[in-house]
Amino acid sequence: MFSLSNVIRPHILTLTPYASARDEYSGKEGTFLDANENPYGSVISGNYNRYPDPYQAAVKEKLGEIKGVRPAQIFLGNGSDEAIDLVIRATCEPQKDNILILPPTYGMYKVCADVQNIEVKQVPLTPDFQVDTKKVLETADKHTKIIWICSPNNPSGNIIERNAILHILDNFKTGLVVVDEAYIDFATEDSFTKLLDTYPNLVVLQTFSKAWGLAALRLGMAFASDEFIKILNKIKYPYNLNGVTQKLLYAALGKENKKDKYVKQILKERKRLHKKLSELSIVKHIYPSDSNQLLVKFTDANALFHFLIEQKVITRNRSNVILCEDCIRISIGTQKENDTLLKALKKY
Ligand code: PMP
């Protein structure tokens, strides 16, 4: 049986969150003399002088409808990087607890753990970038508070088999299973958000930085049980999502069709780029992708990466990363950008 109170750091359970005077008054109209703001206005045009809603109620209401979850199951952060950091801070006691990651994977799980002096256990993915569930469950111990599963995975791009994730959710009950779905909009698989009511040990991360095209706004989501979201809200900075971002997000949520159109365009380009790359003799392998990136094995990735930089084509050199020897990760660009890449590769 999973019990959240066994997973949260004991002192965090006893903390009282920062409370604003506006917690006592939810009206929009009134004489607000509680937050030491400038009552006259802002030094630039626009009304930025009042603090934003710390609970982001309006955007969560709208987002909940789109995602099929309740507002109480949503945490919004300054990028999903904020959620990654907070999930670790909520659960892991430094120098006692550990997290388990499945390399090659997104770098911030380890970075955030390292900053907090938290041990990082590693169980590499299989050569086809799937999860060795037996090894994962054997490696997790009583101090393992989080197993991180990135699906579709970065940098390999592939979705992780659903049954593998379900097996871990069913068998790891002493900590959280975080499924990072930053690239889910590009995949055909269903999101794990549908299983939130079945698995209290499940946390799903998503982001507005990829398909939605809002990377500059820094907007990430965590979906989990009401109880765990309460904990995240308790330890976040009160105004972690600024007012401008909340307003822009509200507008963006009405433009899901445009996001879907972008996804279609990117998937079409991924297919074309895949075909064109496969015709080049320097390309040794292109890994299957369910995201907006292609992991490509070349004859000499290091030298090629630097040649591309000289050509002002910037890719991600992954050749020193486990299971990615001689690989470069390529984000799917516009048709023109992809043609520029292909032209540079032909020049090499
Ligand atoms: N998770 C994965 C798998 C990512 O690749 C990234 C960004 N590259 C993030 C999370 C962080 O995204 P955000 O911009 O929301 O912080």
From TrEMBL:
It catalyses: L-histidinol phosphate + 2-oxoglutarate = 3-(imidazol-4-yl)-2-oxopropyl phosphate + L-glutamate. The gene is hisC_1. It comes from Emticicia aquatica. GO terms for molecular function: histidinol-phosphate transaminase activity. It comes from the Bacteria. Its cofactor is pyridoxal 5'-phosphate. InterPro entries: Aminotrans_II_pyridoxalP_BS (IPR001917), Aminotransferase_I/II_large (IPR004839), HisP_aminotrans (IPR005861), PyrdxlP-dep_Trfase (IPR015424), PyrdxlP-dep_Trfase_major (IPR015421), PyrdxlP-dep_Trfase_small (IPR015422). Residues 43-345 form the Aminotransferase class I/classII large domain. Keywords: Amino-acid biosynthesis, Aminotransferase, Histidine biosynthesis, Pyridoxal phosphate, Transferase. Pathway: Amino-acid biosynthesis; L-histidine biosynthesis; L-histidine from 5-phospho-alpha-D-ribose 1-diphosphate: step 7/9; Lipid metabolism. Belongs to the class-II pyridoxal-phosphate-dependent aminotransferase family. Histidinol-phosphate aminotransferase subfamily. Transmembrane segments: none annotated. Signal peptide: none annotated. Homodimer. Its EC number is 2.6.1.9. This is Histidinol-phosphate aminotransferase. Pfam families: Aminotran_1_2.
